[in-house]
Amino acid sequence: MTYVTHKDIITRWPSIAVYAVDIGISENTAKQMNKRNSIGPDHWQATVSAAKKRGYDGITLELLLALRPSRLSVRANDNDKQPAAQPGPVFVAAGE
After folding, report:
1. CA torsion sign, 40 to 46 to 52 to 56?
2. Less CB within 10 Å around the terminal CB: N or C of the chain?
3. How far is residue 57's CA from residue 9's CA, in Å, rounded to a whole number?
């Protein structure tokens, strides 16, 4: 399995609802993380533990950190377009 974004990790689960139960959060919170493509750092350890229990190789704290969406700075002039986020590294889980 290749993980390029936090959304890729969330959607590794059978459903967002199952992911939410596995890491101990509400389904609404999980939906928001999926929509934002960002797993909050306070949920990283639970995500790694739940992934390990399900046999989802390659989901680690290091991966979550590496795939964390970058914060784009707001330009002084609101009329300027913000720079597009650059794609992050591609990680492939071992044995897949």
Report:
1. negative
2. C
3. 11
pTM value is 0.73
Position 23 scores a pLDDT of 98
2 — phi, psi (to 5°)?
Answer: -105, 130
pLDDT at site 1: 84
Does residue 84 register a pLDDT over 50? Answer: yes
Burial of 65 (0-12, 13-18, 19+ CB in 10 A): exposed
Which H helix or E strand runs over 62? helix 61-66
Token duo for residue 69:
């969406």
**Which residues, in sequence order, are CB contacts of 57 under 8 Å at separation 6+?**
1, 93, 94, 95, 96
Each residue's pLDDT tens digit, 64-78: 999 998 754 333 444
